[in-house]
Design goal:
Belongs to the alanine racemase family. This protein is an alpha/beta fold. It has helices at 9-22, 33-38, 41-51, 61-69, 87-92, 102-115, 139-152, 174-192, 204-209, 344-351, 355-360; strands at residues 3-8, 27-31, 55-58, 75-78, 96-99, 119-124, 155-161, 198-202, 217-220, 245-250, 253-257, 262-263, 269-270, 275-280, 297-300, 303-308, 316-321, 330-334, 368-371. The strands form 3 sheets. It has a 9-stranded mixed beta sheet with strand order 11-14-17-16-15-18-10-1-19. Strands 2-3-4-5-6-7-8-9 form an 8-stranded parallel beta barrel, surrounded by 6 helices. The longest helix is centred in the middle third of the chain and has 19 residues, at 174-192. The protein is elongated, with a radius of gyration of 23 Å. The protein binds pyridoxal-5'-phosphate (PLP).
Length: 376
């Protein structure tokens, strides 16, 4: 083993079950986009299903089709489309499709005709995120066009939905503003005759902190992988969650160097005294942020230590002082934290990002080793 990401599928299953228990009658969608935030999409999706996720969500259609190819037959929504995407494949594969505007509705209708079956669509409202979704001004026209397609038998409008900009900032005024806009856009669509099976808005932070936003379905990504979307409010354990990913590497060497010895490119660190240096065989090509140079935390030889010098493409160095270690000893970059190792949140804090980015960026060269529910 050079480096590996160990994924505890039981943790994913249990996190989804814990989220289910908090949201009452709302259903849970496990968001498995981007290789399940780096955790491995297919096994993570299976574990989430085992925990009670009746829906899965992906950003792009290729992800949804890969889940179908792997045998997933449950409800599945995909939301990020560009013209020319595989709408017809999605309809044939029984994937629910998000529609944010007129061009997407046209493509869905054409796909449904070609596939000779109606497409299930979720109309997406931009209630203030300013990204995807239909603005309030364009909503009446989109709703009417979708209802016409439904009357023609090409689509079934099964969902109405939106997405928050600032749900992770408790008290942010945009949260009630977006919620109010969503309620108004729902009322308009329902007044025109839409009878949605699911209305949904909540992401992980809203699911954990804002019960008023749960509606019929919550869409959880990060929380399902056991990380807190609101670290200033609480850590994973405060929400009954357990981090699923442990990133480990075996030392590729340990050596004694004299005072004044430089380390890695640019000599961004110079040994102040004679010391033992451990070489970790993983680098920015594996998703270790180069910004972690001189600041990233790692558990080596029983203690938390800090990266010294620059993170290179394939390797970085940790200073052990006078402590001993040997090539082949295990280093833990992050994990749940209960063995003294840093967490993904610690890495995020060290380099000024969010834990979402830390786990999602782990590269394809790092094998995912799955244990527990659904591991094959
Ligand atoms: C990624 C994503 C989610 C999940 O967000 P988390 O904060 O990870 O729970 C939910 N909805 C949409 C539209 C997304 O793109």
């Amino acid at each position: 083993m050079r480096a590996e990401a160990r994924i505890d599928l039981d943790a994913i299953r249990d996190n989804i079950a814990a989220i289910r228990a908090r949201v009452g009658s709302a259903a849970v969608m496990s968001v498995v986009k981007s290789n399940a935030y780096g955790h491995g999409m297919v096994p993570s999706a299976r574990a989430a299903r085992a925990g009670g996720a009746t829906w899965l969500g992906t950003a792009v259609v290729e992800e949804a089709l890969a889940l179908r190819a792997a045998g997933d037959t449950g409800r599945l929504l995909t939301w990020l489309w560009a013209p020319g995407d595989a709408f017809e494949d999605a309809v044939r594969a029984d994937v629910d499709i998000s529609v944010s505007g007129a061009w997407a509705l046209r493509e869905v209708v054409a796909a449904a005709r070609a596939a000779e079956r109606p497409a299930r669509v979720h109309l997406k409202a931009d209630t203030g995120l300013g990204r995807n979704g239909c603005t309030p001004a364009d909503w009446p026209a989109l709703v009417d066009a979708a209802l016409k397609a439904q009357a023609d038998g090409t689509v079934e409008v099964v969902g109405l939905w939106s997405h928050f900009a600032c749900a992770d900032e408790p008290g942010h005024p945009s949260v009630p503003a977006q919620l109010g806009e969503f309620v108004a856009m729902l009322a308009h669509a329902e007044g025109r005759g839409v009878t949605p099976e699911v209305r949904h808005m909540a992401n992980s932070p809203a699911t954990l902190l804002l019960p008023d936003t749960h509606f019929d379905l919550v869409r959880v990504g990060l929380a399902g992988y056991g990380l807190s979307p609101v670290p200033e409010v609480g850590g994973p354990a405060d929400f009954g969650l357990r981090p699923a990913m442990t990133l480990a590497a075996n030392l590729a060497g340990v050596k004694r160097v004299p005072a004044g010895h430089g380390v890695s490119y640019g000599h961004a660190w110079i040994a102040p005294a004679e010391t033992n240096l451990a070489l970790i065989p993983t680098g920015y090509a594996d998703g270790i942020p180069r910004h972690a140079s001189n600041v990233g935390p790692v558990l080596v030889a029983g203690r938390r230590r800090t990266i010294v010098g620059r993170v290179a493409m394939d390797q970085f160095v940790v200073d052990l002082g006078d402590d001993e270690a040997s090539a082949g000893d295990e280093a833990i970059l992050f994990g749940p934290g209960d063995r003294g190792e840093p967490t993904a949140e610690d890495w995020a804090a060290a380099i000024g990002t969010i834990s979402y980015e830390i786990v999602t960026r782990i590269g394809a060269r790092v094998p995912r080793i799955h244990t527990g529910t659904g591991a094959s």
